[in-house]
Design a protein that fits this description.
This protein is mainly beta and about 60 residues long. Helices cover about 0% and strands about 45% of the residues. The strands form 2 sheets. The protein has a 3-stranded antiparallel sheet, with no helix packed on it. Strands 3-2-5 form a 3-stranded antiparallel sheet, with no helix packed on it.
Length: about 60
């Protein structure tokens, strides 16, 4: 599958294993952060379940004044 294109993506692998384009392997409970709004392809080598958050702006710490 190709992940949605967004400035910021957070991927959490609930179960299974996937291979990220480029060769990195993710296993259950691993996370991946993607920035830059580029397409990323994942290939499951077994049944896999993942959660994907697509965000348009970075999360920053609140300022106190």
């Amino acid at each position: 599958m190709t992940l949605p294109v967004a400035p910021y993506l957070h991927v959490f692998l609930v179960s299974g294993t996937v291979i990220v384009a480029g060769g990195e392997r993710l296993a259950a409970e691993d996370a991946l952060r993607v920035t830059g709004g580029r397409p990323v392809r994942l290939t499951a080598d077994s049944d896999a379940e993942l959660l994907v958050w697509a965000m348009t702006s970075a999360i920053t710490a609140a300022r106190t004044t």
